[in-house]
Amino acid sequence: MSQYAVSLFIFRRDLRLDDNTGLNEALKLSGQVLPCFIFDPAQIEPHSYQSKPGLQFMLQSLSDLQQQLQSVGGCLALYRQTPELVIRQAVAEHNIQAVFINRDYTTFSRRRDYALQILCAELGIALHCLPDALLTEPEQALKSDQTPYKVFTAFYNNARQFHVPLPRPLPSHNFLNITSSYSDPVAAVPLTINPSIMKGGRQQALQGLERLDRYVDYQHQRDFPAQDATSKLSAHLKFGTCSVREAFYAITTQLGSEHPLLRQLYWRDFFSHIAYHFPQVFGRAFVEKFANVYWDNNPDYFQAWREGKTGFPIVDAGMRELNATGYMHNRLRMIVASFLVKDCHINWRWGERYFAQHLVDYDPCVNNGNWQWAASTGCDAQPYFRIFNPWLQQQKFDPDCQYITRWLPELAGISAKKIHQWNKQQLACDYPAPMLDHSRESQIAKQRFKQAAEQ
């Protein structure tokens, strides 16, 4: 006999049926499970960190999830109201006895889930919160004194010792089907579709997992943005159209247990753990001595950076790719972040917010960790005196300017040699001259960080 007659499972960043820890547990312990997704106004209504590309990816993934459920005799209930109202309604109308969710790690998520805990206790129903999104939980990968790691390599060596469970398919199921507020995710949140944004959904995630063997030379090719040498699974992992365990075993099966792609999965864990243990990172520098670095915050420089009109070809190409597609190659993310912080002297939080608004794979923990790494303010970050030289970066990683000319049509027809010397001579075209002197500004950045460290 089941522990609960009817339970509610709330999909969040786990938009799949297979290998879904919370859903599996709900199905195991319940006679019937009502699957639902809640468009929480706190997240859906416009706000300063909302990603429209991410919202589009999520809506497509929800449509795909609806089809997955229909194929096994289920139906996804959709609500656009607060989780509290949905749960109260589910208890009143369907006699829900338990709520199942998968765990999340941001400050917002923890506050939301604590409120759910209080609500369920008030209603006399159970709340089950399961680990699902990471390879290791924040309470697992700790130092011998039970404090969190602050250096990635030490964290990685510890975290890899923990067994990663094999992915589990959808078990036997009995879904409770109801008529909800919306039958179509797009009807709940109308959005103009941008065809340049990568498509969401389980099928796209599975296709990505199946072709990982193409990245056997990832270690040597991953830094060259003109090549198709990165997995592009980040958005699928963010929204859970594939599980991190599926990604882990797809990599180990196709590429081996020491492949560097696995290390990227653990960086994701590391930044999530840092955000969990040190939630103040969302508002200020992790390294306290760099909290008072002086920033110019020049609005003209920020606008030029946003629009890809700085006169630094590799920087501008990266920003235009982001603006057009919601995606940017990881090497470019580091270059443009370093340029904004160390060359333009603009607070890294401005860039963090802009990426949040435009990345299809926006993950608050990972985005914050990457920006603080590039800004030298974060945990195990790039030392402040090591500053990306955009001219050397483009010569090394886009030597033929294939990536640059793909995104900067103004430079089409100009030789790679002349593009690499754009800081020394500009030709008659619509592309601007460099708006600043990298050598000079990098020295200023070093001085400011040094002064902040000595205060």
Which helices and strands, and how do they pair?
Elements (H helix, E strand, L loop, with lengths): L3 E8 L9 H9 E9 L2 H4 L7 H20 L5 E3 L3 H12 L3 E5 L4 H17 L2 E5 L21 H8 L25 H4 L13 H9 L7 H4 L12 H6 L4 H12 L4 H18 L21 H9 L5 H13 L4 H14 L4 H11 L5 H12 L14 H8 L4 H6 L8 H5 L17 H17 L1
Parallel strand pairs: 1-2, 1-4, 2-3, 4-5
Helix pairs in contact: 4-5, 6-12, 12-17, 14-15, 15-17, 16-17
Low-confidence stretches: none
Question: What is the gyration radius calculated from CA atoms?
Answer: 23 Å
Q: What share of the residues lie within helices?
A: 40-55%
Question: Number of folding domains?
Answer: 3
For the record, give the distance between the C-alpha atoms at the N and C termini, rounded to a whole number: 66 Å
- CATH H-level superfamily of the largest domain: DNA Cyclobutane Dipyrimidine Photolyase, subunit A, domain 3
Principal-axis shape equals globular
Beta-strand residue percentage: 5-15%
Instruction: List the total number of helices.
Output: 21
Q: Give helix and strand order, one letter per element, not per position.
A: EHEHHEHEHEHHHHHHHHHHHHHHHH
**CATH level 1 name of the largest domain:** Mainly Alpha
* Biggest sheet record: 5 strands, parallel
Report strand order across the widest sheet: 3-2-1-4-5
In terms of quaternary structure, what is this? single chain
Mean pLDDT: 95
Number of strands: 5
| CATH second-level architecture of the largest domain | Orthogonal Bundle
Instruction: Quickly give the structural class.
Output: alpha/beta
Provide the CATH topology of the largest domain.
DNA Cyclobutane Dipyrimidine Photolyase, subunit A, domain 3
